[in-house]
Description:
Elements: E1 4-10, H1 16-31, E2 35-41, H2 45-52, E3 57-60, H3 77-101, E4 107-111, H4 115-122, E5 126-131, H5 135-142, H6 151-161, E6 165-168, H7 174-179, E7 184-186, E8 204-208, H8 217-227, E9 233-238, H9 244-252, E10 256-259, H10 262-266, E11 274-278, H11 281-289, E12 294-297, H12 303-315, E13 319-320, H13 330-340, H14 342-351, H15 358-370
Parallel strand pairs: 1-2, 1-4, 2-3, 4-5, 5-6, 6-7, 8-9, 8-11, 9-10, 11-12, 12-13
Amino acid sequence: MKIKKILIFISDEGFGHTVRQRSLIKIILKNIKYCEVEVITSKKILLLKETFKNKIKYHHKHNLIETIKKKDGSIDKIKTKKMFHHWLKSKKKWINDMCKKYPNPDLIISDSVPQAFELAKKTNTKSINISHFTWNWFYKKHCKNTKSKDKVLYELDKSYNLADNFLILPLTPAEIIKKYKKKHKKINFVISDFDKVKKTKKKINCLIMDNGTKTLSVFIKKTIPYLKYIKNVNFFVGIKSYNQKIKKNIIDSKNIFPVNGLKKIHHTIPLADFVIARAGFNTITETLILKKPAIFFNEVDNEETSFNIKMLRKLKIISIIKSNEWGENIIKRINKFLTFELNSLTKKIKNENFLSNGANQATDFIVKDLRWQK
């Protein structure tokens, strides 16, 4: 039996793309016989190696697109647009390099690297995009030059149009679903495995999460000194990127507990009664599936997080924290949340039935569509 070669191209943006593909790889390795998986990405390869060790192969290569952030965590539109123009100039060489290294793959999967589908067409390989947004949608919202034909947008559209299939996750913008309606299939959320935990009921537990691109870092730093005054809540806060002064503030507090590393932060969600975080898709997925009420922060000028918040508002299962509610004002904001929002949000989210078998659905699609052996 021939070994099937599966290439998985993971966007270098944040944390969520890697988490979703990690979950998918686990199911693929478990359920598809005679396959070899190789991942192409850069920043999160160590995270994948922690999970899979030598069970899969790794190619350390940046996939050309990611957003650039300002010091306050908001998107730097000028530098981000330059990143897209760099993609346009670099993708031909990227594709040629990949063709030389992988002349005959059997399947290409991406979340959501557009030029991977050009590679698939050039190597006559079946391709699948698995995502809740696409970079052409993002670029059109943030960077498009409305006065003339935009070469970057044209090339992004062309790349995505070459994908054979789109597996669409929940909370995907309607424009994307409509654009690829002839190629798409909806699947459920894709989520990490979580350890079973025993939670103490002595106090309310709050997890304060930064994201993979450190959007909330500035706000969390100025908030930590004031958390000790909210004595009826235990706070779990990541400390990896903070200086010794901030770390000392945490260690000296009786109600703040340090969590070291982004992976451990995400695995602390089951302990929490509520979460404070950026409204990124991966964090939303985890809080919804684990039925944890959340206070979400909307990044300035980020259409993806704005859309995520809009969808959660429709479901009436969201609370918002504004830029001016961090720091000393966190005391008032959390007390208001505990008094007026926590109980009602907890009831609403527990009544929702969000499913997390998207990785299994994607694997079943691969087996059925390509007639591969399970």
